[in-house]
Amino acid sequence: MNGILKFYLNKLIKFGDFSIIDADGTKHRWGDGTGDPVVLRMNSRAAERAIALNPGLKFGEEYMNGGFDIVEGTIWEALALIFQNAGNHATDEAWMRAIGRMRLVYRRWIQNNTPKRARSNVQHHYDLSAELYDLFLDVDRQYSCAYFESPDATLDEAQLAKKRHIAAKMYMNRPDLTTLDIGCGWGGLGLYLARQLGADVTGITLSDEQLKIANLRAKEAGLGDRARFRIEDYRNTQGPFDRIVSVGMFEHVGIDFYQQFFDQCSKLLADEGVMLLHTIGRWDVPANTNPWIAKYIFPGGYLPTLSEMMQRIEPSGLIVSDVEVLRLHYADTLKHWRHRFEARREEAKALYDERFCRMWEFYLAASETAFRWQDLVVFQVQLTKNVETLPMTRDYMFEAEAKLRERDQAALMESEAWHERVAAE
Fold first, then answer.
1. Higher model confidence: residue 39 or residue 113?
2. Taking burial as the number of CB atoms within 10 A of a residue's CB, which of 210, 226, 328, 362 is the most buried?
3. 115-424: CATH topology
4. In whole angstroms, how far apart are CA 185 and each of 138, 168, 242, 300, 352?
């Protein structure tokens, strides 16, 4: 077995039952024997060497390419065991820190998210087949952290709760508020704000697939006059808007463009406006994006700490009026996505191939375990331009959320009754 890999695993795995069958057929075991066994089989010495020299990139890459297989357990169980043993110090080895420093040198190039490159990066992930996302997302195609009001909530219930949680923070205190949705996805949140709160929504995206579906959904829902979606970079948008919301888009901005982003949001937000920014972030110190994620899933992506965001918000003219940290909500969201993808894996394979399925399995498993045992959380940051815009206490959020919950339940009952009538006819 590769000596560097063995040395690293000797130091890393202290509990659990983790084994590797090396390329020569010899089985090596680590841990204290507790829990279900996880056994990997290395299919070549080259795979062992690659993982030993650059585990952050090559572990996922070799799994995708068949460099190793899981013969007992799953890739999720393997990553869970590794991350739990590592805690929040998965890169403490000297050679791994050296790789991280080298990546810092060219990080500015990787995250140089000019308008042209930003569009290309978005298309890399979000312009995949629409049928793929239907395999594992909720009925509304919410591709961001759900909000679990109870542990036994379904994915659809939790994603609906997320929309009203965000809407309540936006202080939608009257109809016809002009609302900008930066990174609108397939239009679900914008349509919710238009339907439930009478907002006048403009949604912008850089994905052709998302744009097509969002506008079709608005037309089918009879909301075409209240919810309009278009291809547009936020840097080119003209305002002002009474409300701005951005969910799951800030991760794609790139750290060197943070000041430009917040300056533009300040310019676009009306003087008495409210903005809600929902983004994945880190509770620990700033760190590089995982190299495998950056190469295969979200090129140009970067996950901020609060300190990195605040440095750019403060000179922009925006005021931080509220911050909430959602901790394990995304881990549970990813668990639902992972199970749904596993249940329909053969359909995904028919759309793409085995290598793609292994890539997607690794992506969902690695993301979930990072939220459970590493330093990832979700930040919801509320911003205004005037300290008097919002009520003095946060009670308005809870009251608005309760009212929206009643409306959502009434809309669900009405929909169920309609389907029953159609079925009876």
1. 39
2. 210
3. Rossmann fold (3.40.50)
4. 13, 20, 20, 18, 22
**Which three-class secondary structure string do you get for the chain?**
CCHHHHHHHHHHCCCCCEEEECCCCCEEEECCCCCCCEEEEECCHHHHHHHHHCHHHHHHHHHHHCCEEEEECCHHHHHHHHHHHHCCCCCCCHHHHHHHHHHHHCHHHHCCCCHHHHHHHHHHHHCCCHHHHHHHCCCCCCCCCCCCCCCCCCHHHHHHHHHHHHHHHCCCCCCCCEEEEECCCCCHHHHHHHHHHCCEEEEEECCHHHHHHHHHHHHHCCCCCCEEEEECCHHHCCCCEEEEEEECCHHHCCHHHHHHHHHHHHHHEEEEEEEEEEEEEECCCCCCCCHHHHHHCCCCCCCCEHHHHHHHHHHHCCEEEEEEEECCHHHHHHHHHHHHHHHCHHHHHHHCCHHHHHHHHHHHHHHHHHHHHCCEEEEEEEEECCCCCCCCCCHHHHHHHHHHHHHHHHHHHHHHHHHHHHHHC
**Mean pLDDT rounded to a whole number for the chain:** 91
* Pairwise CA distance, residues 357 & 278, whole Å: 28
The pLDDT of residue 43: 97
Q: What is the CATH number of domain 3-105?
A: 3.30.1050
Condensed to tens digits (0 to 9), the pLDDT of residues 74-109 reads 999 999 999 999 985 544 555 445 444 544 555 555
pLDDT digits (tens, 9 = 90+) for 210-230: 999 999 999 999 999 999 999
What are 365-400's pLDDT values in tens digits?
999 999 999 999 999 999 999 999 999 999 999 999
